[in-house]
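Quick start: what a row looks like.
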Amino acid sequence: MITLTGKIERRNIGLGAWAFLTDDGVTYEILKGADKNLLKPGQTAKVTGKVREDIMTIAMIGPVLEVKSFEVISSD
């Protein structure tokens, strides 16, 4: 499990993908099925989750992050 802080982004790749851009500049793809309260473009959050190395996606924007819990820090 890892804990990261960053911003939620919606990427227009294929059918669309949700990205989590960390404060350190690393981009993760949020695993489909994440809580809708997290998936708001521009929102800053602290998330705890697991990097899934057993999953590949069409978007391929970064490692896939399965979010287990989150705390919203700010919304745009």
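That is the whole record. The radius of gyration is 11 Å. The chain has one domain: 2-74.
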